[in-house]
Amino acid sequence: MSASSLSVATNLVGSFTAEAFAAHLASLPPSLPAWWIARKRAAYEKFAALPLPARTDESWRFSSISTLTLDGFTLPSAAATQVPHAPIGIKKAAKLVFANGRLFSHEPLSAELAARGVIVTTLQDALVKHEALVREHLLAQPPKLGSAKFSALHEAFLVDGAFIHIPRGITVEQPIGVFSYALGATTAVFPHTLVVAGENSRATLVEYFGSGQDTEAQFAAGANDLYASHGAHLTYIGKQDWSHRALSFQSNSTVVRRDARVQSLNVHLGARQARHESLSQLQAPGAFSEMLALTVAESGQEFDQRTLQIHQAPNTKSDLLYKNALRGTAKTIFSGLIVVDPDAQKTDAYQSNRNLMLSDEAEANSLPGLEIQANDVRCTHGATSSRIDPEQEFYLQARGIAKAAADELLTFGFFEEVLNRLSADDLHEALRVLIQTKFKK
Amino acid sequence: MSQLEIKNLHVSIADKEIVKGLSLTIKGGEVHAIMGPNGTGKSTLSKAIAGHPDYTITSGEVLLDGVSILEKEADERARAGIFLAFQYPSEIPGVSIANFLRAALQARLADGEEIDASGYYKRLYAKMDLLKIDRKFTSRAVNDGFSGGEKKRCEILQMAMLEPKVALMDETDSGLDIDALRIVADGVNTMRSPELGVLLITHYQRLLDYIVPDYVHVMYDGRIVKSGDKTLAHELEAKGYDWIKKELANAKA
Ligand SMILES: Nc1ncnc2c1ncn2[C@@H]1O[C@H](COP(=O)(O)OP(=O)(O)O)[C@@H](O)[C@H]1O
Ligand SMILES: [Mg+2]
Fold first, then answer.
1. Residue B247 belongs to domain spanning
2. B101 in helix, strand or coil?
3. Alpha-carbon distance A178 to B3, whole Å?
4. Residue B222 covered by a domain
5. In this structure, are strands B92-96 and B141-142 parallel, antiparallel, or unpaired?
6. Which chain B residues contact residue A400 at CB under 8 A?
7. Is residue A380 a contact partner of residue A350, using CB atoms and an 8 Å limit?
8. pLDDT, tens digit, for every residue of A315-329?
9. How far does the CA of residue A393 sit from the closest CA of chain B (Å)?
10. Structural domain includes residue B146
């Protein structure tokens, strides 16, 4: 092998070498099913073969490419001894805490919910005990939004994650919490959460991503799979609060079946560069996906959100509202596409990206899109960017509120439309407190 | 006892002089009314004192308790004790009255000090009861979708909570029906004390039946052209602003 071809190969995998992958496989428990190991091997091959995103890729338009490095990261081996304090406290039905991809601690379900068949456990456990369900749903939806390489990397190096199953007709009143921490200066993590909501079940999942220190230059390639069976109602809240020096890729897939509804709200606060892909597939009549996001972007941060709402059946509905507040020299990208299949008549699809520019130097890019192949549909999309109204700002200042605090208050005012979509007041308040921490930094 | 001194104030907006040399001293405990026709510069005067960035003070002084406030930003002026009740209050969607007032009070505390939430709500509800504002309003967004009268009551509620040294009340009576006017006037009257000086801007005498001023000034073309006691307001009501214009024309001739 020539020196030059070797260096190309190295560039395609960075720190995630074949040796590192072999070591990762060797570290997994022998109990894991063979199909899963085979899938991981195939994923690694795919990861190693796929090129890194290029400036000319339409799905990476406006993204900073040169900063998407795979080098300089380490795969954690030792178990963590301590995780940071959870920033918010709301009562949970159960809780799983992962540190560097391994289960750190957990609070089990009540005996009553467990007896009714609710499952909140690790993927490693579920791969053995609930093999069929996991096999059917784990990373079952191929990535469609441009991050195939990072999704393959995720699958290859995924150590452990959360598996949640709500059986048919069961309601879990309190949220289920999943916390994923990355600890260590250059740590790479691959968090995963899989939720299978059975027919007519009800549940809320709150997921938190955080770092040990805000200065750690970590790497995260995470994913989740949400599957809402016939008539299920699922609420998902994701809070991305990685270190401000982290590089993050997250790929979320939502499948909504007949008369089911999924509400997801992703709050983006951390990372130096965060790519977030959300795919919603409305597969049967009556399916509804509400896709919400709130981002506070500041100097040195780039948030790159790509979404796809696919209407695959008639009488389906999707409603997307992504709001970004940009400070300093922050940069955001929103690219959203609504796809309506030929027989998905009576589709009702909405997509809106709103940017609040708190500084003249910030940059917000919007690429809304429609691809409609049915003729009887209602699809609306739009994007706006606006500055703070100086009269509003003066009004707040005239009450003694300094400009920085006024901007914070007006940002919350701007976010309220999204937070108000949550039906649980304590979640609303917990998110407000979490977002506030970003303004206190 | 506090005191606001306005000395030979000149205010321009976009290079056009609007306030053309106005002097006035408001002592704690006093209520001064400024009356004048539309477009004469009353709102300009009040916004300039409050520190609106669009209004340039080209000369003159504004002193609060002997200290110039003109170098201060609007928020510092407010914290120093200036309160402007806006003629047209801004709507702040998504920000509840409770959170808004809490932020305003928090801004007056030292770093690291936190507002006592239960004491805050107790006080807020008491003031709302006084102003006959439904407690449900605490969770409504500031002025968002409020009627004219609701906006004005919300301004007075803020004034009651922030306890300024000097209140500049710009046409607080406009848009109010008689019942609302009474409520607002009662609210202001209960706040009257030696600790508070009030500048009431209005162009109707009606308000002054409910908030009885110590002094009445007539403002015309950027200046105070006549001052007197409350009887001046009645005279103005009877004779109209043309009377002032004629007097001024005669004086010039
Ligand atoms: N923001 C502004 N831009 C331009 N002109 C203004 C502005 N505000 C006030 N003016 C002008 O200044 C003059 C005085 O207005 P204002 O102070 O509102 O009077 P009043 O409150 O006495 O009715 C008017 O001629 C008005 O058109
Ligand atoms: Mg006016």
1. 3-91+165-252
2. helix
3. 59
4. yes
5. antiparallel
6. 75, 78-79, 104, 107-108, 162
7. yes
8. 999 999 999 999 999
9. 9
10. no
